[in-house]
Amino acid sequence: MTAPTHETSHDSFLGHLPVRRIGFGAMQLAGPGVFGPPKDRDAAIAVLRRAVERGVDHVDTAQFYGPDVVNDLIREALHPYPEGLRLVTKVGAVRDDQGAWLPAARPDQLVEQVEQNLRSLDVEQLALVNLRRFERDAPDADEPPLADQLGALAGLRDEGKIAMVGVSNVTADTVRTAIETVGIGEVQNPFSILDRSDAPVLDLCREHGVSYVPYFPLGSAFTGGPAAIAADPHVTAVAAKHGVTTSQVALAWLLAQYDRLLLIPGTSSVAHLEENLAVADVVLDEDDLARLEQVEPVTVGH
Hints:
About 40% of the residues lie in helices and about 15% in strands. The chain contains 11 helices and 11 strands.
């Protein structure tokens, strides 16, 4: 793995668009299981508005969060949108009446999903649309040809409906193909101090100047999540040194890996939002990073 950079400036790029390094992932604003309405709609609206007040200019969403719920909350809370707010969404799946996630990734379905996002968010252009594939979590699934999917999104880019194409939940081969054929602004894959299995994709992004947006940045149910991070003695030592939480250390470690790595931590709590945004001020030194390299990663099957 290429040696990480240690610059943790607040400013970076989403593709060619300037953004703050810590954005907001809106998925958690829906009900349990990312399905149905939030328990407290007013709280969800308040978190979105506070995020923008604090300078967040990158909001990650999807029509299938809810479904329909989260985009409606974003529109209600933030429209008319402040200049420079980057709205990023993803396509390639739908939900059934019970909340199950179903692939819906034929080119015509992708186009319709982008149109749905444009309507529900009430915008003429989305900053970036990620093609969500199933090749990591269901590698034997029968998916439409990648070239056809990327071509459909590139066509929408040519029409001006999206500024950039991205890919999510994909292998290094898919990332390489997407870079070489249509050009991409972002990769959104799982990566954390506990799960570093995507390091080859992160290296590819570094090599080509593509933004990298980790999901499960604090690990997942498969790695023990924030509790496993909090139990690691190396993380706790660095957290004590800086007077911050173990989760803040884990997020700061991610920022130190690549200057175009962008965080989109999600929450439905204003207090938790403030804690996440404070990570921008946690600067890890060489000793910290050497200590954190001793964290034992968890092997996760994909």
